[in-house]
TrEMBL record:
<feature type="binding site">
    <location>
        <position position="338"/>
    </location>
    <ligand>
        <name>Mg(2+)</name>
    </ligand>
</feature>
<feature type="binding site">
    <location>
        <position position="54"/>
    </location>
    <ligand>
        <name>substrate</name>
    </ligand>
</feature>
<dbReference type="GO" id="GO:0005524">
    <property type="term" value="F:ATP binding"/>
</dbReference>
<keyword id="KW-0460">Magnesium</keyword>
<dbReference type="GO" id="GO:0005737">
    <property type="term" value="C:cytoplasm"/>
</dbReference>
<dbReference type="GO" id="GO:0006083">
    <property type="term" value="P:acetate metabolic process"/>
</dbReference>
<keyword id="KW-0418">Kinase</keyword>
<feature type="binding site">
    <location>
        <begin position="168"/>
        <end position="172"/>
    </location>
    <ligand>
        <name>ATP</name>
    </ligand>
</feature>
<keyword id="KW-0963">Cytoplasm</keyword>
<keyword id="KW-0479">Metal-binding</keyword>
<dbReference type="InterPro" id="IPR004372">
    <property type="entry name" value="Ac/propionate_kinase"/>
</dbReference>
<feature type="site" description="Transition state stabilizer">
    <location>
        <position position="140"/>
    </location>
</feature>
<keyword id="KW-0808">Transferase</keyword>
<protein>
    <recommendedName>
        <fullName>Acetate kinase</fullName>
        <ecNumber>2.7.2.1</ecNumber>
    </recommendedName>
</protein>
<keyword id="KW-0067">ATP-binding</keyword>
<dbReference type="GO" id="GO:0006085">
    <property type="term" value="P:acetyl-CoA biosynthetic process"/>
</dbReference>
<feature type="active site" description="Proton donor/acceptor">
    <location>
        <position position="108"/>
    </location>
</feature>
């Protein structure tokens, strides 16, 4: 089957042609503003059987869905919960629907539908949570699904018996605990704002601090949203764009990088507590793959969990184990191939529809 995959990130756009499970063509727009549709119009693709579009937020949906106007309208309701991502996916999907091929929406949130209630719930009044659907959804699910399968291919383990921490380090950062191929806990929550410090997002902040800012009228609700999503994280602390390349080139990036590393370590420790044992830790996403020193800094603070890496393996290339031979947990660096997961899910969805 010929599948065109469309992966709008919070700062990039990736377009791929996947034929029978193999990527044969790829175009990446590293710094897409999410406003102009020019990249989508510019790329000319041959005829495909299906288009797969990544959506960060699918609400309570547990499976991919063939898009129509009704589903699009429903997905638009989640723009306030994922303002960096959802509008971009909606634009891309609408553009794709002008063609003749069916368009399948694949959701990051769907992977986390398996989380137990204790991991999904917030400590808020049940009247509020029930009325407004306030719960932890989790994100980066497509990435986690791909890399957890990929590591079992590399070391020939049974995915149903493997317990893994998936550490996704891109513009967004999350850590997910995966047991037997299912998500049991994750650092992101109701929105992709919760958890670790990210490129432009603050990560978790004391709610009392936010109440204080609003109560003292230091910022309005709209201004606070803009600060938390677009002006914080690495960008806010370093005075740069938040792109790790810009941060590391800044005059004094130390505090920003130290906070970033510390918060990822903390999330790894928290997620490890949701597993019975720790078989593997997987680092993925553009920052992890292209900034090996950062992965080294993070792992060197995690000896308490038995995590160790070999410097020579750390600086190698490709999908690989970077921990000592025979050591547990195994530590991996895996290139994120969300396009292959998108294509896989789209093929299954179209097959079920026919």
């Amino acid at each position: 089957m010929r599948v065109m995959t469309v992966n709008p990130g919070s700062s990039s756009l990736k377009l791929s042609l996947v034929v029978d499970g193999t990527e044969v063509e790829r175009t990446v727009f590293d710094r897409w503003d999410g406003v102009t549709s020019e990249p989508l119009r510019r790329k000319q693709w041959p005829e495909v059987d299906v288009v797969a579009v990544r959506f960060v937020h699918g609400g309570n949906r547990r499976t991919p869905v063939v898009l129509n106007d009704y589903v699009l309208a429903d997905l638009a309701d989640f723009v306030p919960l994922a303002p960096l991502h959802q509008p971009r996916s909606l634009m891309a999907a609408k553009h794709a629907m002008f063609g003749s091929a069916p368009v399948v929406a694949c959701f990051d949130t769907a992977f986390h539908a398996s989380m137990p209630k204790a991991a999904r719930a917030y400590g808020l009044p049940k009247e509020l949570t029930a009325k407004y659907g306030l719960r932890r959804y989790g994100f980066h699910g497509l990435s986690c699904q791909y890399v957890t399968r990929r590591i079992t291919e590399l070391v020939h383990t049974n995915p149903e018996r493997t317990q893994v921490l998936c550490v996704h380090m891109g513009a967004g950062v999350s850590v997910t605990a995966v047991k037997g191929g299912r998500s049991v806990d994750t650092s992101m929550g109701f929105t992709p704002l919760e958890g670790a410090v990210m490129a432009t997002r603050s990560g978790s902040v004391d709610p009392g601090l936010l109440v204080y800012l609003l109560d003292q009228k230091i910022v309005s609700a709209d201004e606070l949203s803009d600060v938390l999503y677009f002006q914080s994280g690495l960008a806010g602390m370093s005075g740069t764009s938040g792109d790790m390349r810009d941060v590391l080139a800044a005059q004094d990036p130390k505090l920003a990088v130290d906070v970033y590393v510390h918060r990822i370590r903390r999330e790894i420790g928290a997620m490890a507590a949701s597993l019975d044992r720790l078989d593997a830790v997987v680092f993925t996403g553009g920052v992890a793959v292209h900034n090996r020193d950062l992965v080294g800094q993070i792992t060197r603070g995690l000896e308490v969990l038995g995590i160790r890496v070999v410097d020579e393996l750390l600086v190698a290339h490709g999908d690989r184990v970077i921990s000592p031979l025979g050591a547990l947990p195994r530590v991996f660096v895996i290139t994120d191939r969300e396009e292959l997961e998108l294509a896989r899910q789209a093929e299954i969805t179209i097959g079920a529809e026919s």
